[in-house]
Here is the input.
Amino acid sequence: MNVLVTGGAGYIGSHTAKALVSSHYRPIVIDDLSTGHAHNVKWGPLVRASLSDIAVVRRVLKEHKIEAVVHFAGSALVADSVARPLSYFQNNVGGTLSLLEAMLDAGVKDIVFSSTCATYGLPLSVPITEDQPRNPINPYGDSKLVIERMLEWMGLARQLRWVALRYFNAAGADLDGELGEEHQHETHLIPLAIGAALKQRERLQIFGTDYPTPDGTAIRDYIHVTDLASAHICALQYLHRGGESRAIQACRHRLPRFPLKNTTNEKLCAPTAKLSSTCPILFEVTSAHLSLRLADESAHANTIHSAVRRHLPDDELADLASALARFIRIEH
Ligand SMILES: NC(=O)c1ccc[n+]([C@@H]2O[C@H](COP(=O)([O-])OP(=O)(O)OC[C@H]3O[C@@H](n4cnc5c(N)ncnc54)[C@H](O)[C@@H]3O)[C@@H](O)[C@H]2O)c1
Here is the structure.
């Protein structure tokens, strides 16, 4: 079966394209390469175009006899969305509008959508369940919520069948070493921590000290990118079996509980060894929450001055290093 993978040159999309082939699907990628890389598209054709170009999307759906869509394409930086809200609505909502219109014309009914936990905003309780209210607190989350609502309405009006996977933090890299996380402007914690451990950056900044956790810093849920890729395929299969349209949470693990059984891959050995040898990470902990930093760069500058600096104790470092090993980034 031919599956259109929008944003398939990006981080999660490229891992999913690979997983699709292993599950006997044929991925066709459409990507404007705004943040993705052509070299990540190895398992099927790449059409370099924006989703906003509806003529191209229509042509691709028809020419490749597409039967289902996995939709990753979009802008996904929370900070950037606070600074440039309109461009997030334009790219995420506008791009999806164009995609859905083209799908409707071509009679393609099944879509798995890459949504986000940012649709919830501040949760009422933790762990968050799918039935919690959706009150996003930034334009990125809001743009994804609008898309979820578009899917809901299109399901009612035009029998569109959809699954929205709400992820938390994707992390890790392809276990065969063929793909990795390659964001030019990196904001994700794991690659930043690895960068600090490898001395590629001076320190790892942690934002917020008043969370209800033992040390006041945030606890986050992570999901390995290959698990996420499998989740998309399960969602496709669920739709093909006649499953009802719905949103599903894609967050199962917290970092320290991640199984480490996959760290032995050869291509990962060198950086892993480097990471596990003593390389203290310099932490910079600031009381400012990330959202405050995003909203007001000058407030951020002040709080950085009063930031607490600390080295991680050796025993914690060993744990962190082995946990991070599974998340190591492949250098191209
Ligand atoms: N990375 C995470 O932790 C995370 C968490 C929750 C949700 N998500 C969602 O998952 C999706 C993929 O995230 P990612 O981390 O792989 O990001 P990414 O930036 O690596 O991938 C996005 C891809 O979409 C492409 N793209 C963007 N706008 C496009 C357009 N208009 N037309 C065609 N292609 C376009 C980019 O070039 C890129 O290849 C995003 O929609 C994001 O909102 C990611």
